[in-house]
Amino acid sequence: xxxxxxxxxxxxxxxxxxxxxxxxxxxxxxxxxxxxxxxxxxxxxxxxxxxxxxxxxxxxxxxxxxxxxxxxxxxxxxxxxxxxxxxxxxxxxxxxxxxxxxxxxxxxxxxxxxxxxxxxxxxxxxxxxxxxxxxxxxxxxxxxxxxxxxxxxxxxxxxxxxxxxxxxxxxxxxxxxxxxxxxxxxxxxxxxxxxxxxxxxxxxxxxxxxxxxxxxxxxxxxxxxxxxxxxxxxxxxxxxxxxxxxxxxxxxxxxxxxxxxxxxxxxxxxxxxxxxxxxxxxxxxxxxxxxxxxxxxxxxxxxxxxxxxxxxxxxxxxxxxxxxxxxxxxxxxxxxxxxxxxxxxxxxxxxxxxxxxxxxxxxxxxxxxxxxxxxxxxxxxxxxxxxxxxxxxxxxxxxxxxxxxxxxxxxxxxxxxxxxxxxxxxxxxxxxxxxxxxxxxxxxxxxxxxxxxxxxxxxxxxxxxxxxxx
Length: 470
What we know:
four-stranded antiparallel sheet, single chain, 19 strands
């Protein structure tokens, strides 16, 4: 009777252990479902969610660092047609994106519209010098007039240059070049970023994810339109993805992430590079591919981005993007800093550039469960073009078209300790607790089942041996 009781107890223990293990196993998909539901609820852009609080205003501090290119041989370029030699000077650092989104409006079609206000505050402690530092750079008025005025009217440009005592190059302060100065030739304010502190980007319309979480943050309209009008091509005019501040949750590293950047007037894909640890949080690093600005001969998708076949040598030059059509006609060319991934010809136009993937590539570090971008570095370079002329004196010695670098920018931000702790506390601690419970139940149940089963087998064998001698 005692043996039967022990056997029954071991059987009951094995059954209990199996039940606990099964419960732990069942909790895995159930727990994953709970996690998914929680994340989906908190990722929706509406009042009271984690996503909304981080969406309205950037959690960390965003900086824009600028390196200007200081021309060292202007007289040789003007007098003998020498190749320009430049040295980068910087960084000059500004705090940006410190203003929350404005005019936030929730629409009936599950979208939310808003404006992104611009603002820049100079940070002397993070800069190499004051904004009053001077650099020798391309005269934007002369280069712009050369590009915009038909050659038949270059005589008019020549008279304007002479009457204003202008030249192909000018020496100005960092503050003037960045934010504005009155140009003597055009009698108007010129700058790389005119009226920046009084301007807005947008309006944007993005999906709030309430009806479909896979579309949360995805841009529906920009400036009231579902597509761009800069490129005269349906493919290049598409607005794809988000604004890169976040992506839909449950990121699949096998698929590229798409985002639209108004700075470069187009959408671009970013591809997975590696897993990283950011303050104890796993993130996926995504980066722009080298073929993003490749010549159409390498990447046929870029054919519709080639606008000037003369300057780009019949669209064979890689590494630059002519965005004049979205800059009010200003002959602006965008590239990666120091013409990273650009054609060798670009580096023959200007000397002194040293491209480096480590310092000049663009990346996003995305938390895969929520889709939030927790660290990023957006790096682009602003260039202008000038070329030879038989009429304009300051261009008579120029031998060929030159894409001249003006400044490169690194806009960067990273998750701070306070926000990281909030993430871990509000989301990852719950996930970790659920996983720990799942593993504890599964492990404990299996251990009880195995032990009871082993003891039951030992007991049965011992009882069997004893019965032989009865």
